Amino acid sequence: MTTLAFIVIGVTVLISAFVQGSTGMGFAMITAPVVSMIDPSLIPVMLLVLMIPLSAYVAARERWAIHWHGVRWITVGRFSGTFFGLWILVVVDLHQLALLIGWSTVLAAVVALLAPRFTPNRTALASVGLITGVTETSTGVGGPPYALAYQHSRGPELRATVAVCFLVGQVISLVVLALSGQISAETMTVTLWLLPFLAVGSVLSRFVHHRMDGPILRYIVLGFAIISGGIVIVQA
After folding, report:
1. What does the pLDDT look like over 80-137, one tens digit per residue?
2. 109 CB contacts (<8 Å, ≥6 apart)?
3. Phi-psi category of 92—alpha, beta or left, where left has phi over 0 and alpha has psi -120 to 50?
4. In the prediction, which pLDDT does 217 show?
5. I need a surface site. Which of 31, 47, 54, 185 has the fewest CB within 10 A?
């Protein structure tokens, strides 16, 4: 990887961490398209590793608002979907994976944008977990299904609950990927060098996250998903 490519990815990680820390989503939606264009082999491991400290930070910051009922049922579905996501990662080539990232992001965001207001029950939550297990393990992008489930929730609840779901799911996915030999030393090296960018973006988000709530939060999150997914589709 060239120095310029690394800087581009680093700045993207910083911006994405700021967006995720402020709105509760957006890290993988923004970062995955950029990384897919530069070095698709970094997907999904780089995203999953970087999002562990980011998710832990966001969850701890607003831990009082966590919707634990949703976390439990999403985790049930998330575990099941992880293995199908691993199968996709093994059998799909990098070009197809880039298209999968783009289309899965755009379609999920459009569905979330058009869906009427609702309160998800345990079946819906488990289904969200299942879909996220598939998409996040194979592409690193898991936010859009969470956006569908919690798009009408208050900002603190959305950010904190989704962060816990991300954290649990990312650990599950990484363990499965590690056991299947999908994690390389080269990917981990690049990922570790990106941690300072992640830290700066995360810290900056604490100055604005309390202002992100209501419809504006929903449209920002879903808008990022549609734009980032579209870029990947065009590139692929």
Report:
1. 787 777 777 777 776 776 677 678 778 777 776 776 676 778 888 888 888 887 777 7
2. 144, 147, 222, 225, 226, 229
3. beta
4. 72
5. 185
CA–CA separation, 8 vs 92, rounded Å?
Answer: 26
51: containing domain: 3-235
Q: How many separate domains does the chain show?
A: 1
80-96 tens-digit pLDDT: 787 777 777 777 776 77
* Residues sharing a CB contact under 8 Å with residue 141, sequence separation 6 or more, in sequence order: 28, 29, 32, 44, 47, 101, 104, 105, 135
